[in-house]
Structure formats: structure tokens, C-alpha cells
């Protein structure tokens, strides 16, 4: 199971259509989504007009896409109010800058424009090595998930209005819904700053509320 499977299942089986993707890169996921309301945000898209045209032939839903080539912070400050004036977000993939406070702002800003039954999917929540889990400036080679895992701990500690868990697949897919949490943590933001990858390794299942991928179907009442 990967992020596209999760998005498509929620769209087709739960009827969630209005889609926001923060961090789009070459549109590997974005261009495949079948929705008449799709919003792409990235400071540097890795595609040009001809790829956009080609993707619109393959998937005509791409004709309606809205593209914002700017950081998510700028998007939320300058554009979001108008973009979501008449249609709220129902499904969002948060996959931009993979650092604790960036991902946290992306989730909190998305929530301002999200339907009550909307779902946020966060990529890169379950790093498997210290190198993958560190700060961008320290990253050298291989996979980089950053410290989005700290954002999960923050939300589970500070947001009693949200249920947050991580599916153990595709680098860790964080799932955020507006529901009573099944369990919470008790960390302050300062304590979270000081956590290390070794701390995560010792407490991974509890802190991330890590679930096998089959839990996704159970949680949303879907057939596998
Ligand atoms: C891992 S890629 C996204 C992959 C894409 N979501 C997918 O599933 O194929 C991360 C993207 O985040 C973008 N990014 C970096 N900083 C950002 C920011 N502050 N706001 C929004 N996007 C950002 C990068 O330009 C990059 O294209």
C-alpha cells in the first residue's frame, strides 16, 4: 500500500474529492488523481507546460488543476483564502519540506480550510535510519524523511481534537482526522525538539501510533 492507494481509496470509497498536495515535485502522484478540484503547491515544480499538457491527455481531470509555484507558507498567506472560498479541502497530501515545524504549519494551515470529515495524509513519518531522520542540512545520501516524525508526536501531544496514527508502509503515512484521539502523548514542543532518532527507535510503535496497513481499511470502514 502506498500514498496513491490511500488517496484513491478515500476518494472512490468515501467520496472525498477536493484535493490539495503540498510538495508535488514532478507530479508523480498529483497528475494521477481523478478530481475536478486539485491544487498543487511547490516552490519548484519539476515539470513544464508540455508535461502538463501530456498529463491532461492521459487524465483529463488535469485540465482543471490549479498550480501555485511558491512555498506552502506563502500559499497559505497569499492564496488559500480565495482558493478555498467556495470549496474546502477534503483530502490533502502533506509532502513538502520534511521538517518538524514546516510539516506542522502545513497541517495546521490545511486544517483551517478542511471539511470536518476531511483527511490529511502526511508522507515520510517513519524513518528507518538516523541519516534519513535528521535535519536537511545534515543529510548526506539516500532516503531523506526528515523529522516529520516529530510533527506526529507534536499533534498527538498538543491536539486533543485530532486522531493521528501512522500506517507502516510507504515511508510511514501519517493519517490525521478530526476525531477524538484513541490515545495521546504528553510532550511539550521543547521536549519534542530535544528528542533524538535513538529515542524514536526505542518508542516507535507507541509514539507514532504505528499501525499495520490493514488498519486503514478498518478505521475508515472500507473493504480491503
Ligand atoms: C518528496 S517531494 C514531493 C513528492 C510528491 N508529493 C510525490 O508524492 O511524488 C518534496 C517536494 O517538496 C517541495 N518543497 C520543499 N520545500 C517546500 C515548501 N516550503 N513548501 C512546499 N513545498 C516544498 C520540494 O520542492 C519537493 O518538490
Question: What is shown here, in short?
Answer:
Keywords: Methyltransferase, Transferase. By secondary structure, the chain is α/β, with parallel strands linked by helices. 36% of the residues lie in helices and 17% in strands.
Describe the protein in words:
The structure is a single chain. This protein has one domain: Rossmann fold, CATH 3.40.50. It has 224 residues and is an alpha/beta fold. Strand 4, helix 5 and strand 5 form a beta-alpha-beta unit. It has an eight-stranded mixed beta sheet with strand order 3-2-1-4-5-7-6-8, sandwiched between helices. It contains nine helices and eight strands. The chain is globular and about 50 Å long. Helix content is 36%, strand content 17%. Helix 5 packs across helix 6. It binds S-adenosylmethionine.
Q: How many helical elements?
A: 9
Query: What structural class do helix, strand and pairing data support?
Result: alpha/beta
The CATH architecture name reads 3-Layer(aba) Sandwich
Regions with pLDDT < 50 over 5+ consecutive residues?
A: none
Question: What's the arrangement of strands in the largest beta sheet?
Answer: 3-2-1-4-5-7-6-8
Q: What's the CATH topology name?
A: Rossmann fold
The tally of domains stands at 1
Question: What is the global morphology?
Answer: globular
The pLDDT mean sits at 96
* The CATH superfamily title: Vaccinia Virus protein VP39
Distance between the termini: 11 Å
Please report which band the strand proportion falls in: under 5%, 5-15%, 15-25%, 25-35%, 35-45% or over 45%: 15-25%
CATH class: Alpha Beta
Helix/strand order: HEEHEHHEHEHEEHHEH
Report the bound ligands by name, code or SMILES: S-adenosylmethionine
Q: Name the helicity range.
A: 25-40%
